[in-house]
Write a structure and sequence with these properties.
Structural class: alpha+beta
Helix content: 10-25%
Order of helices and strands: HEEEHEEHEEEEEHEEEEEHEEEEEHHH
Number of strands: 20
Radius of gyration: 43 Å
Strand order of the largest sheet: 1-2-3-5-4
Largest sheet: 5 strands, mixed, barrel
Strand content: 25-35%
């Protein structure tokens, strides 16, 4: 080869050498792996070498270097920085992991611009929110985890969530995500679907979501319905929390559905056996029962003898003594013993007596008897629909006279 040809080849070789710049993507061929698990590579087209620390390789945390790369492998790398000076020859710090991250950021940016969502597993629960692995580190603030307050975020660890991209800044490795928007959209869709399926009269299952002083909210699957406190049981319930627990599954009957206001009225007690249905099997005329005084009226006292079953003790059956009002001798909530006078389950009527269990006092004269009869005959008709007739409330005057 002539000297001219040799110089020409040298110039062509020099022209083919590319300049290495920070941020460039280059190809590196593995030349060696040192004891500290650093991969020494030759950067193609440059004649210089680069170093890839083990942590800068795309690999699992517990992987071995021998299982990851071997001498002769060629792969793409991004130039991170220069090591040493030009006088010393110098080399470059390279990374495969950051190159892959750059590709992920590019993809996430495209999805963000297109308004698309991404899916990522929750890897950590930290103060203030959740950390996810979206190929790059993403963060979900606690306020964006759900559309309702979540007290314990640890339940999300390991779950793969669908997420909306709120903010993205690759240069700062900043990726803010939200699961709240997804949950809200899913809940609205499920709510509409559930509302469309509900039919008045249906008996369905639901889970108790919240308890208040006036009732229980039941989750029917994306939409809550209200069981008013009066519809929890046939017996009187003071506080829903006395008989129900949050998270409990219950059967409910659909009473009313208002799609426009998104209101659903439900009943638990109407899914239970009617307390009057088998009353004739539980009690008979002449039986002595113990009950609780539930209500006092001008014409008598209503005593609950079984859950949801109240009988009337007419004012004339409260005491052998003349009383003007029941609250002269009885108080609401008091426990009393009563005798069953008659039973009519089909009419929801149960006549009771307290004085039938008490000893008759001696009568000094007949004058009080006359006044008692006169007072009894002046008893007014009931102020509310009780299921008892006027005759029931006045009492059998003839029997009363004989008792006296």
């Amino acid at each position: 080869m002539s000297e001219a040809d040799a110089n020409k080849d040298l110039l062509e070789a020099l022209d083919s050498v590319s300049e290495v710049k920070i941020g460039n993507v280059v190809k590196g061929e593995v030349l060696a792996i040192d004891d500290s698990k650093q991969v020494i590579v030759g950067i193609e087209g440059t004649g210089v070498e680069g170093v890839v620390p083990f942590k800068e390789l795309v690999t699992k945390p517990d992987a071995e270097i021998e299982d990851t790369v071997k001498v002769g492998d060629v792969f793409d790398l991004v130039v991170i920085s220069k090591i040493g000076s030009d006088k010393e020859g110098g080399s470059y710090l390279l990374s495969q992991r950051r190159l892959e991250a750059r590709k992920v950021w590019d993809e996430i940016e495209k999805e963000f611009e297109a308004g698309e969502t991404i899916k990522a597993p929750v890897t950590q629960v930290v103060k203030g929110g959740l950390v996810v692995d979206a190929g790059v580190r993403g963060f979900i603030p606690a306020s964006m985890v759900d559309d309702r307050f979540v007290e314990d975020l640890s339940q999300y660890k390991g779950q793969t969530l669908e997420l909306k991209i709120i903010e993205i800044e690759p240069s700062e490795n900043r990726l803010i995500l939200s699961h709240k928007e997804i949950v809200k959209e899913e809940r609205e869709a499920k709510k509409a679907e559930t509302m469309a399926k509900l039919v008045v009269g249906d008996v369905i299952e639901g889970k108790i979501a919240r308890l208040t002083s006036f009732g229980a909210f039941i989750d029917l699957g994306g939409v809550d319905g209200l069981v008013h406190v009066s519809e929890i049981a046939y017996e009187r319930v003071e506080k829903p929390s006395d008989v129900l627990k949050v998270g409990e599954t219950v059967k409910v009957k659909v009473l009313a559905v208002d799609p426009e206001k998104e209101r659903i009225s439900l009943s638990i007690k109407q899914t239970l056996p009617q307390p009057w249905d088998d009353l004739d099997e539980k009690v008979a005329e002449g039986d002595i029962l113990e009950g609780t005084v539930k209500r006092l009226t001008s014409f008598g006292a209503f005593v609950e003898v079984f859950p949801g079953v109240e009988g009337l003790v007419h004012i004339s059956q409260i005491s052998h003594k003349h009383i003007a009002t029941p609250n002269e001798v009885l108080t609401s909530g008091e426990t009393v013993k009563v005798k069953v006078l008659n039973v009519h389950p089909e009419e929801h009527r149960l006549a009771l007596s307290i004085k039938a269990l008490e000893e008759k006092p001696s009568v000094a004269s007949s004058e009080p008897k006359k006044k008692q009869v006169e007072n009894d005959t002046k008893t007014e008709a009931p102020e509310e629909n009780t299921g008892f007739t006027l005759g029931d409330l006045v009492g059998d005057l003839k029997d009363d006279e004989e008792d006296k």
